[in-house]
Amino acid sequence: FDTEKVLAEFGLDRVHPGTYTDSLGWGSAESRPVIEARCPADGELVGRVAASNAGDYELIVAAAVETQKKWRMVPAPRRGEFVRRIGQLIEENLDSLAAVVSLDTGKSTMEAKGELREAIDMSTLAAGQARMMYGFTQQSQRAEHRMYDQWLPLGVVGLISAYNFPAAVWAQNGFLSAIAGNTVIWKPSPKVPLTAIAVQKLVNKAAAELGCEGVFSLFIPEDNAVAERLIADTRVAMISFTGSTTVGRRVSDIVGSTLGRRYQLECSGNNGCIVDETADLELAAKALTFGVVGTTGQRCTSTRRVIAHVSIADELVELMKKSFDQITIGDPREKDTVVGPLIDEQAVADYQRVLAGAERDGATVVYGGKVIERPGLYVEPAIVTGVEPHFEVAQSETFVPIVSVLTYDALDEAIEIHNGVAQGLASGIHSTNLTNIETFLSARGSDCGIVRINMGTTGADVGAAFGGEKETGGGRTAGSDAWKGFMRRQSVCVNWGGTSAWDSRINL
Ligand code: UN1
């Protein structure tokens, strides 16, 4: 694609303000530090964004509080039309928006479009959900009383997203927030400011068409002190956070200390997949490949551990090597590229550190493992064997394309290894044995939020609730009844008969 043309289309060919709120429009770029957006493919400077400051934040939050007072009274199905329109605009601008995602993250066009497809799917899901935010009716024990629960908006939601999915995570959390009658302040990762600005422009177009201005606002501070204002602000009813466990813990500490505010966390994963002796190994190798190399290992759902039955482990590794060989690594702007570079130099250093540590612990790198000699931040996906459960490489969320292969003899042992990490996001088993599969799905099986049978750990379907347990943080977004996390439940009892409880002296 033509980088200059794409940037100009979204007004990103000049220093662009990182602040948007309806009361202000695009904020000022004056006397603010400039965030440099460099394409991870070659380090080229592709955009400059003026970081939001504390004063910008104050204007945003004040406007979000005011707008929410109106938005909460808009019928939910109309709120749904707004998010559906945003989804349509993403679809209409798919090619150019995908190009911005690639420039920001280094993702291939295929993956960038996949991410935007997820955002579009999320818009249709949320639009439909807006008509189906049901509460139950209950049977009152009092005569001539009606009892039910209803779901009401929370207020302002602060949405903090990571660099790896600059549009989809916003859509997952933001669309549910909006249909719920909340306004949304988005703080994206400053590593990917261009996507956030481009998305906000499409939002503004939909808002102008439908009279929904001010529901979504944007702030891109450079430093964490400004970002923390959002987390600590009691005017913000909920923080939805996607990112590392370290920062997630801070969010839970700060938000949790003010009762009545909510948080929903989607933090680190350390996703494992068991492959038993009955598995279709060709299918498993393919599923594991994309799980490991997709988004250059930078998904919270990336497959980091393969727990293989000792009798098939060698054969599986050979098939994985063959399958890894099929992956085209390269510049995300080239048509055939499947896997792009890592996000920044720190990630490359992490990759080298994790591999060196694994080897020091006694593991063997049997595939890949080198930084690719070319401009840009490219690394070879790596397969590491001889890993024991306690090795650092198996215990931490590495966030680079490295997979550890561990072996087991009995399924119970495999499950113990699988669950023996701090994180609990995605998991899987490859098997054709019903008992093994159902054991993994039972109470003594996987302890994760997501389980995939004969599939990869990545690429969650928006229809399901997305999130995980343990250090992953316990939150859920996307489908199923995740919308409830963005609303408050109210239990209602109506006396329609005119008899007071005092008169009957019951159930006072
Ligand atoms: C993330 O990686 O932070 O299911 C979330 C998947 C993607 C994950 C997005 N939707 O693999």
Describe the structure.
The protein has 508 residues and is of the alpha/beta class. The chain is 38% helix and 21% strand. It has helices at 3-9, 54-71, 76-92, 94-105, 109-129, 168-179, 193-210, 224-232, 245-256, 281-293, 313-325, 345-361, 392-395, 411-419, 434-441, 501-504; strands spanning 15-17, 19-21, 25-26, 34-38, 45-50, 137-138, 145-153, 156-160, 183-187, 216-219, 236-242, 262-266, 271-275, 303-309, 364-367, 382-385, 402-408, 423-424, 426-430, 450-453, 465-466, 469-470, 477-478, 487-495. The site of 2-aminohexanedioic acid has 13 residues, from helix 6. This is Aldehyde dehydrogenase family protein.
Helical amount among residues, as a percent range? 25-40%
The molecules bound to the chains, other than polymers, are:
2-aminohexanedioic acid
Sheet having the most strands? 7 strands, mixed
End-to-end distance:
71 Å
Strand order of the largest sheet: 3-2-10-9-8-11-12
Condensed summary:
The chain is an alpha/beta fold and 508 residues long. 38% of the residues lie in helices and 21% in strands. It comes from Streptomyces laculatispora.
Topology:
Blueprint: H1 3-9, E1 15-17, E2 19-21, E3 25-26, E4 34-38, E5 45-50, H2 54-71, H3 76-92, H4 94-105, H5 109-129, E6 137-138, E7 145-153, E8 156-160, H6 168-179, E9 183-187, H7 193-210, E10 216-219, H8 224-232, E11 236-242, H9 245-256, E12 262-266, E13 271-275, H10 281-293, E14 303-309, H11 313-325, H12 345-361, E15 364-367, E16 382-385, H13 392-395, E17 402-408, H14 411-419, E18 423-424, E19 426-430, H15 434-441, E20 450-453, E21 465-466, E22 469-470, E23 477-478, E24 487-495, H16 501-504
Parallel strand pairs: 1-5, 8-9, 8-11, 9-10, 11-12, 13-14, 13-19, 14-17, 16-17, 19-20
Antiparallel strand pairs: 2-3, 2-10, 4-5, 6-7, 7-24, 15-16, 18-22, 21-23
Keywords: NAD, Oxidoreductase
Protein name: Aldehyde dehydrogenase family protein
Organism: Streptomyces laculatispora
